[in-house]
Amino acid sequence: MTRATGDSRRRAAAAVDIGGTKVAAAVVTSDGLIIGASHRPSRGVAAQEATALLAEDLRAAIATAHADGFTVESLGIGATGRHDLATGRLGAIDAVLDGWGGSSLPRDLALALGIPLSALLNDADAAALAESRLGAGVGADPCAVVTLGTGIGVALIHGGTVLTGSRGAHGEFGHISIALDGALCFCGARGCWESFAGGGAMERAWLRDDPTREEKPASEIFAAAAAGDAAATSIINAAVRATALGIANIAVTFAPATIVIGGGIAAQWERFANEVQAELGRRAPILSQHPEIRLARFGAEAVLVGAGVAALDAGGAMVNR
Domains, the chain, ranges and CATH? Predict the structure, then answer.
């Protein structure tokens, strides 16, 4: 746990990160200090149970923040998928978290804590907000942030603001098709970037090749590949190639000054770096500029920080009704 020091920083928000395998909670201050962070599994946990556990964790973090002189004024949540800001409900995320789609967890959690729900945004958008305001994307405009985790999230920051689609919708760039004859993705398309390079996709590929194998998290598949396992190497090579194509497509489409790489799989970036740079080099004739690649500052905590920043930006306004 990171404790605050006695200074002029007083505004803070409760923040939650809802991912495909874990939920995290903390209090986040206006300059990105994280107080009382907790982490729990999300897979196999009912949304109602998660609400109670998050409330417990956040009450403890809020008490610590108050003792350190901070006022926790609102709640911000970054979550995989697309969500209903007006009602404080999660969107259709059952393909990632079974039974969570349409849940009133955001609204219920705010009520349990007695503070307004001021931000409910996609986790990739939250991570991008954190990195552009306080992290590796500071000074870069426009800045694309790629989150390599259970899935693939991409967000673009321009002028300090997350660019969104109609009615604030999050664009799912992780679901661009990079192999027209690729496997069918839950999104309905074939050969998505995420279906090759998301951590969940790699784990499924490991079992699909040989159902008798013991399950492995993506980190262990990387380790197996490094140790020379042929099946793991094939899975990782496909993920690397897909990511190189995905990042090159971002560069061609959005012409960002910088692309920030975050998420849990960013810890394996050395395995990706050369292929990504080679693919960017092949696109040189059409690129407006060759983007700088930076690794995220906040790592696995970027969504928490971004959710807190978004809530503070809203100034304590309640988005749910």
Answer: 11-127+301-313 (3.30.420.40), 138-296 (3.30.420.40)
